[in-house]
Amino acid sequence: MASSDPATIKKTLQHHFGAYLGDDVLQECIQLCKMYNVTGEDLFFTYESLVYGRGGARQVTPDNVAEIKQKLQRDLEKQKRQLAKSNRPMLPMRNLNGLMKSGGNADLLNRLGASSKIKVESPSIGIPSAGESSRPIYRNSSVQFTRLDAQRSSEQPQKYRYMYEKISERSEDDRIEDIAQILKNHYGIADFGDPAASTEEDVVVVGRITMDSESASAESAKLNEASLTLESSRMMGSGVRVPLKFDPDVRIRQAVRGTGGLGLFPGAIVALRGKNGGGGWFNATEILSLPPLPPRERPGPSKSEGGFNMHAACGPFTTDSDLQFKPWRAVVQKINADQPDVVLLLGPFLDCNHPSLKYGDIDAPLPVIFQQTFIEPLRDYLDSKPGALVLIVPSVRDLLNDHAVFPQAEFGSSLFNDPRIVLLPNPCRFAVNDVSFAVTSVDVLFHLRKEEFVKRATEVESIGPEGEEIAVDPMANLCRHILQKRSFYPLFPTPTDLAHEVNLDITHSDFLKIPEQPDVLIMPSRLRQFTKVIEGTVAANPSFATKGTYLSLSFSGDRPQSGVKVEAEISRLDA
User: Fold this and answer.
1) Strands 530-534 and 389-393
2) DSSP states of 135-189 as a string?
3) Contact in structure between 505 and 406 (CB atoms under 8 Å)
4) What is the pLDDT of residue 40?
5) 32 vs 269, residue with greater confidence
6) How much is the mean pLDDT over the chain?
7) In whole angstroms, what is the distance from residue 28 CA to residue 32 CA?
8) In CA terms, which of 356, 378, 426, 575 is 20 to 30 Å from 291?
9) Residue 154: what pLDDT?
């Protein structure tokens, strides 16, 4: 039982808080202990759990005291709800008592995780600093979570300075040069030619597919063989655009077996063999396919990290007709029933395109709606399943995100503070139990499908296992574009009629790169939902919660020589 003697409480508080507790807030803390029937030790543990994600204990401020009071009030209300369900007498609040010695924040959460599946190792749940991307943020024998794009953080606003770009930064030169170097190493090419220069011998050129100016100026224009142009980098060809024509007997080298050609779209980086014979265009006789992504370098020997289950659901989470969030309630019902180890949620959560939100037809501030609708049910779930983890990825349509462009920073930590809910940028790369994920909420599949022009060609030196079925349908080829082009959004420029869905910011294009092959690629789209295996990567379109679907993933922990085996299934939400 907590002591009600102010002197005893004061002594306990001063013992645990030490120099962090000033006289200006000491009396308020004593009152909280008496009001909520907790000891000074309990109050200290509550404070440490709140500031854990901010770098640990520091000087206690009146704002911290207000947070502690809110946390104690939430715990009290939760006990009341449990009491109403069980009709058992309510016990005094003993928040974490006896679970921690003086080992600091990480020790506190490690002890809390002793009976759970996730254990906190790092003294901060924020983004690791550069060079520490392989260090796990959460780990125990069952579940380990690691950020793979550790250089990004909303705590580094200089990384997200928009509208400060120079004209020279508005091109894709760096990307062309990067792809050219990959091709040079893969094919053993000595030098690349300039597609605008007339030559008698065939040369290999690398450039970006564009549309000629006359076609590009027309509304709803789509790429076709007559409007193709090739733009080289300024280093390899002064950035000149040259009309592109394909030989009738054009070949494609080292394409995936069965594709029978190459999908072209504005922004696609291609390598071509041919020549400019002085006719004002480059005539391509052979297409050199980009090599596959390199596999991820896994630390240490390949071994099982333990299995896990994941549910992934994508917004919008309510229909345009109301703000009842029925699809979201179906998602919550499903995760409460299935109890997955990891829940991945992609925005939009509060959609700027929703009529009620667009015109302000709401009864509460947006942060309050977000807290009550999304965060509170997630916290209840996390309380019911110790060790579970929630990952949240925003959308450019999210009203509560400060960044409305793509690539996009994660939600601000001011919305809530819970170490069990990890905020991720859009796009993002991370690993769970050493199973790597690449995720974006932008509908890149629909954009590619709308702009793609397929050029048929004869396959030469095709790649792919003999005798095995290879996915070469249109949806699989769209996913293959993203992997081969090594970018979450390989189109450039964005289609005019779809630009508002992306708000693409080229100056931050480094955040769009996919440097290594992911085990799982998740891209929600308005196209029909699917799961496919693309050269060892499980690619999935879970569609949207408003369409009644979500993605269910399971990893048994087995890691055969052929790679990670992840089972993926598109499932229906209960009506």
Assistant:
1) unpaired
2) S-SEESSS-EEEES-TT--TT-GGGG--S---GGGGS-HHHHHHHHHHHHHHHT-
3) yes
4) 85
5) 269
6) 82
7) 6
8) 426
9) 43
CA 100 to chain centre: 34
Map tokens 């291609």 to a residue. 270
Looking at the DSSP assignment, which residues form a beta bridge with residue 283? 245, 275
3-state secondary structure 267-322: CCEEEEEEEECCCCCEEEEEEECCCCCCECCCCCCCCCCCCEEEEEEECCCCCCCC
156: left (phi over 0), alpha (psi -120 to 50) or beta: beta
Q: How many residues does the chain have?
A: 575
**Dihedral pair phi/psi, residue 189, rounded to 5°:** -80, 130
Q: Are 305 and 557 in contact (CB under 8 A)?
A: yes
Judge whether residue 101 has pLDDT over 60. no
Tokens matching residue 475: 């949806």
pLDDT class for 88, splitting at 50, 70, 90? very low
Query: Can you tell me the distance from the alpha carbon of 33 to that of 1, in angstroms, rounded to the nearest whole number?
Result: 12
| Encoded tokens for 280 | 């004002």
User: Looking at this protein, which amino acid is placed at residue 190?
Assistant: A
Mean pLDDT in residue range 245-252? 96
3-state secondary structure of 112: helix
How far apart CA 177 and CA 289 sit, in angstroms, is 16
- SS3 breakdown of the chain: % helix, strand, coil, rounded to 5? 35, 20, 45
Contacts 24+ apart (CB under 8 A), 32-35: 32/65, 32/68, 32/69, 32/72, 33/2, 33/9, 34/4, 34/6, 34/9
Note the pLDDT tens digit of each residue in 397-430.
999 998 889 999 999 888 888 889 999 999 999 9
Q: Using omega within 30 degrees of 0 as the cis cutoff, is the peptide bond preceding 386 cis?
A: no
Please give the single-letter amino acid code of residue 210.
T
- Round to whole Å and give the CA distance between 114 and 387: 9
